[in-house]
Amino acid sequence: MSEHLGIMEILGVAGSVSLLSGWRLYLCVLATGLAMHFGVFPLPEHLASLRVLASPWVMGAAGAAAFMEFFADKIAWLDSLWDTVHTLIRPVGGALLSLAIVDPADPATQAIAFILGGGASLLAHSGKAGARAVVNASPEPFSNVVVSSAEDVATTGLLYLAYAHPALAGGVALVLVVLAIALLVMTRRVLRALWSRAQPWAVPRPVSTEVLPPD
Question: How far is CA 176 from the centre of its chain?
């Protein structure tokens, strides 16, 4: 990572990380910690607060949580329960990660990063949770494994791309926002269709054939 990042690049990295946290918060924390621990990318001075993620204790806790999430996310309906529990945890975690990325000498930018980071994480989480609820409605037993594995790979790859190439981080964040919104729209349409099919057929009211006498 470049040692001299512009404000747009910093916000792009923060946005990408917070959005990906809405999918895999613990994986984001673990992957970031491992990358710093093994020197995959250097951190500029203003990102020094992120070095706490390279602590063995933090990586151990994140690894244990990521391990549990890896399996829980691949079992139908258990994944939805896991998502429900993390409805608050992921947005808060994404907001804190976003806050840690922004230069602490700029309080205004930190406030923007915290607010937008939490909102971005919530948006990504909502899209993921809604899409997985739709997948769970399918009788096909392997959909959860396929979708969850794709999320694991995408999260890891996009996270590395955002950190290693900050100039592309804004584009990554934009793609993730569009994807999250698309998932929400798709989920809404599918749920409306399922709800309509679940409704009992309306019984037409009988038409009266009685002839009324003239006034």
Answer: 9
